[in-house]
Amino acid sequence: MIRALAAAVRLRACTTEQLIAHTEHPLRRTNHRRPPITALRLAYRLASGYTPPFKENAAIVAALRAGGWPARLALGADPVPDHSGRRHLHAWIELDDQPIATSLPAHTYLADLTRFPPT
Question: Is the overall model pTM greater than 0.85, yes or no?
Answer without folding.
Answer: no
